[in-house]
Amino acid sequence: MKSVFFAALLALAGLLSPAMAQSDGDPLQQVLNENRELIVDASRRTVQGALDALLASELPEVPAFLQLWQAREIYVRDSDGLFVTVEDEDADPLTLIDLTTGEALGTATSREVTHLRPNRGVQNVIGASLVLFQLNAEDPAVRAGALAAIARTPDESHLPLIRERIEVEDDPDLRDQLEALLVRLTVAFAEDDETRVAAIESLAGSISVEARGILNPLLATTRAVAMELPEDRNIARVLTPGSDELPTDEAYGLLVSENLAPPRVTRAGIRDALIANIDDGFVAGVPVHTLDSDEARLAAYMTLAEAGTVPPPVTDEQAQVILNSHVFFETYREPSGAVTSAAVQTLDGINRTVGVYETVDLTLDGLSLASIYFLAAIGLAITFGVMGVINMAHGEFIMMGAYTGYVVQTLVPDYTLSIAIALPLAFAITFGAGVAMERSVIRFLYKRPLETLLATFGISIALQQIVRQVFGAQARPFTAPDWLAGSLDFNDVVSISYIRVAIFGLGVIFFILLWLILNKTRLGLEVRAVTQNPAMAASMGINPDRINMLTFGLGSGIAGIAGVAIGLFAQVTPELGTNYIVQSFMTVVVGGVGNIFGTLAGAGMIGFFQKGVEWLNPSNTLAAQTYMILFVILFIQFRPKGIIALKGRAAGD
User: Fold this and answer.
1) Fewer CB near the last or first residue (10 Å), C or N of the chain?
2) What is the pLDDT of residue 647?
3) Confidence at residue 8, expressed as pLDDT on a 0 to 100 scale
4) Residue 307's CB: how many other CB atoms inside 10 A?
5) Rounded Cα distance, 296 and 118, in Å
6) Spans of all domains in the chain
7) How many Cβ atoms from other residues are within 10 Å of residue 620's Cβ?
8) From residue 466, how far is each of 396, 473, 562 by CA, in Å?
């Protein structure tokens, strides 16, 4: 009988305290049940006790539980107090999932469980504790994710965590991130100004966007007005009403918004007041139909104001008196003057450094554009300078070079190898095309520049149409190899794409090669002889006709190579050449026809001028083209022979 009694008592204990039975085999459930009230009825003030107990347990399941709790995915089964999550919150009944094993524990209706819904304050406290786990994780990727989360939503509670982690972090990249984050959090949340100022001063010399992102919020200001300048505010500057920084209307509007002045009556306000006071076709004793002018409406309004029906209007003189009796100023949102002074000084130094680097970056951009123009124009400089031929089809030779690169790349999938093949092939094709054009058309039009211009313009249109018929009008892909992808980044301000670097290198190579050809070879000697005095050159056994043919072919071949280079970053279309023909002619004219040093100087001048205009007006690239043309027109008025004038036949022409 006694044994039956004890058995019944044990069974009753199991019914009354099933949660205790569950917790005996699950350490996590045991900790949760010991802190049940703090977890179920969590508030921002009391939740830290439960979190401290969970952290002290050092259980591996704690981070997962905190994530679920923060995401409002934790439930408590009412029958036994077991903490669980569910498989599908919208299902009915709910499938309960064990927090430790992830196994299904059966089902329950929404009435049989309590859903824990921590508010935003509790979620933030949980998040801070969760970050502690992630910052101390063995996996560097988890620690990096924790730092990214802190960077997105920094909080004062993160500051001691970052300080502690820096002492033990062994990954150099993560350590750099921690140090940068420590500065940011110190500036934002440190308690004493001395510590914040030291953190601000540590940013001196940095040009990173992050550094400026830390300092700029400290210098955010708001406008304010008072009878006299307050001594307890961190004043940024005093504003003068009527100046550009504070127009009179804005100043008076600020007074009105602070209830320091009555609002001024506008035309719309007068109209509305008169409409509201119409009585049997009259307003203030005046027939409505006579109120057909601003003067009449103002007179009627003044009558209503004298009667006290509407507020009297504020005259300009009265408004000025009110303005003069107040002081307007901008105040920093940051209350500490020491902090804002340090931020101003540090940011000024950063901005000066950034300005220097922006100048360097603009110089690199101008140099890059100049190298492109040089490549596009050097062939034209040879044909135009030596032969005096205005070749309007020069742009189409550039286009043919780009399409040569595209065709080769479709046949040779290796991008690097395809470019290596395309460069000499483009030269050969456009050299042959140039020789053919010179033999069939140009040779009959020497000394007839207008007819040469018209003929080559017609050839350019024909070449565009032929390419359009063969390849279509849509852009064709010509892809740079991986080693030309991306950019060479010197810092957060100065960078240049690898393709531009390669084009600059190609321009240097061609400049050297052409100088060697023209100055160190027999062909160059004959070209210079024909350029300076074709009759004398012919009497010395040089064939000017042959030299003209080879020269025209050489210029056309160089245009083809330029097309390969340009096609790597520009769209390969039938109209590709038209985008560079004008700049090519301007480069040659400004530099001095027939001289590679002049072409180099002209390309540099035009490239830097265009980039300078684009920097001054970045939203309008068309303006840069327009100003560049005007600049060239003005330049040749003062120096018609270009920067480096050529002596000889071309100079005489």
Assistant:
1) N
2) 52
3) 37
4) 11
5) 65
6) 2-121, 136-219, 221-335, 354-652
7) 12
8) 11, 11, 20
Q: Do 409 and 479 meet the contact criterion of CB atoms below 8 Å apart?
A: yes
| Spatial contact of 364 and 494, defined as CB atoms under 8 Å apart | yes
| Burial zone of 644 (CB within 10 Å; 0-12 exposed, 13-18 middle, 19+ buried) | middle
Q: Which residues, other chains included, contact 377 with Cβ-Cβ below 8 Å and sequence gap of 6+? A: 583, 584, 585, 587, 588, 591, 599, 602, 603
Cα distance between residue 257 and residue 261, in whole Å: 8
The DSSP element (H or E) to which 331 belongs, if any, is: strand 327-332
**3-class DSSP assignment, residue 311:** coil
Task: Give Cα separations from 512 to 240, 479, 506, 507, 597 (angstroms).
Answer: 61, 27, 10, 9, 11
Query: Residue 128, Cα to own-chain centre: how many angstroms?
Result: 32
Please report the pLDDT score of residue 17 as a whole number: 40
Which stretches in the chain have pLDDT values below 70?
A: 1-25, 385-387, 593-594, 618-622, 645-653
Q: How confident is the model at residue 621, as a pLDDT? A: 64
Structure-token pair, residue 550: 């080879």
Rg of the chain, C-alpha, whole Å: 40
Count of residues in the chain: 653
The confidence score (pLDDT) of residue 465 equals 93
Phi and psi, residue 499, nearest 5°: -65, -40
pLDDT of residue 594: 62
Distances in whole angstroms, Cα of residue 312 to Cα of each of 166, 255, 618? 67, 17, 49
pTM: 0.67
Q: Is 525 left (phi over 0), alpha (psi -120 to 50) or beta?
A: alpha
Residue 93: asked if its preceding bond is cis (omega within 30°), the reply is: yes
Helix (H) or strand (E) holding 54: helix 47-57
* pLDDT the model gives residue 461: 92
| DSSP codes joined into one string, 440-473 | HTGGG-TT-HHHHHHHHHHHHHHHHHHHHHHH-S
DSSP state of 647: P
Detail the DSSP E strand segments found in 124-234: 221-226
pLDDT for the residue 269: 83
Is residue 299 within 8 A of residue 282, CB to CB? The reply is no
Query: What is the residue-wise DSSP string for 126-150?
Result: HHHHHHHHHHT-SSHHHHHHHHHHH
d(CA 548, CA 383): 8
pLDDT given for residue 25 in this prediction: 65
- Contacts with 399 (C-beta within 8 Å, 6 or more apart), sequence order: 463, 464, 467, 563, 573, 574, 575, 576, 577
Residue holding tokens 């005093």? 238
566 class by beta-carbon count within 10 Å (0-12 exposed, 13-18 middle, 19+ buried): buried
Indicate the SS3 state at residue 540.
coil
CA angle 341, 346, 349 (to 5 degrees): 130
Q: Using alpha carbons, list the distances in angstroms from residue 313 to 157, 249, 274, 324.
A: 54, 15, 14, 18
Nearest CA to 574 among 463, 490, 650? 463
